[in-house]
Design goal:
This protein is α/β, with parallel strands linked by helices. It has one domain: NADP-dependent oxidoreductase domain (TIM Barrel, Alpha-Beta Barrel). The strands form 2 sheets. The protein has an 8-stranded parallel β-barrel with strand order 1-2-3-4-5-6-9-10, surrounded by 6 helices. The chain has a two-stranded antiparallel ribbon with strand order 7-8. The longest helix is centred in the middle third of the chain and has 21 residues. The two termini are 17 Å apart.
Length: 325
Amino acid sequence: MSALGIGTYLGECTDDEDERYRSTVREALVSGINVVDTASNYRCQRSERAAGHAVEEAIAAGDIRRDEIVICTKGGYVAFDGSPPVSRAAYDTWLQDTLFTPGIASQSEIARSGHSIAPAFIAHQLAQSLSNLRLKTVDVYYLHNPEEQLLAVDRDEFRTRIRAAFRLLEERADAGDIGGYGCATWIGLRVTPDHKQHLTLADLVAIAREVGGTTHHFRAIQLPLNLAMPEAARLPTQPLGRKLVTILEAADALGLGVVASAPLMQGKLATALPQELHALFPDCTSDAQRALRFTSSLPGVATVLAGMRTREHVHENIDAWRGMA
């Protein structure tokens, strides 16, 4: 996995934005970035489709081989098709027609009006993602913010739901639909154990071993990590043995890869960083580059994901590593 990966979260649900993403992902792939991160709900499935076209074009042109790139996507949030419903009433009708009536999910399986990790729902989203991405296999498939469920159910029910989802993902890994799976989180791995949405990484790995044995396919986690959100590196949130350790330490001990998201905090860290950081990264020419390098430099971080929507943005970010041995 390259130190820098391209994310596809932001943007409007428009054809122009689709073309920008298609062009930018293609540019990233031919420029040495080999990690593409997306999700079924990003821009109403449009981000997956744009990424799929870019990957297909790059492979067809001989710019890359399929086994040289790592394609990651996520399932968990309901994913509209092209554009969001225009009203709450339209949304309720969409849920009924798209999910409830066909039996893809029941009302009790949808938490907070839009999140589910029920096996049938995840299986449906995975099949949808494979189609959107024009792939036979997704390299890493994440449960998207599973801590959302903890706002709707108790811990025992949460573990039951995680176990069922992991069992489904183990089956899909054995079938070749995914290479491995993980959890892409926002808050769950950064908060302390007394927090309602806290996720214990050791428990998740234990559940994976229960359903998949010692050769289980639970391989990676994703979480925000940046200068303003350093909890993964600084805050002991994870019970491991008889002590609390940071998430980076826990992931290393448990053999999991760590993918860092939001390194620029959606642009908030791209300017006005303290002068002291300039000396730490003398090869960098912008604060955005310094912020990327900071996150990438933390021990245990495999890849840093940055949202990029222009070719110029791709090359500016890649230049954060220029001059490194």
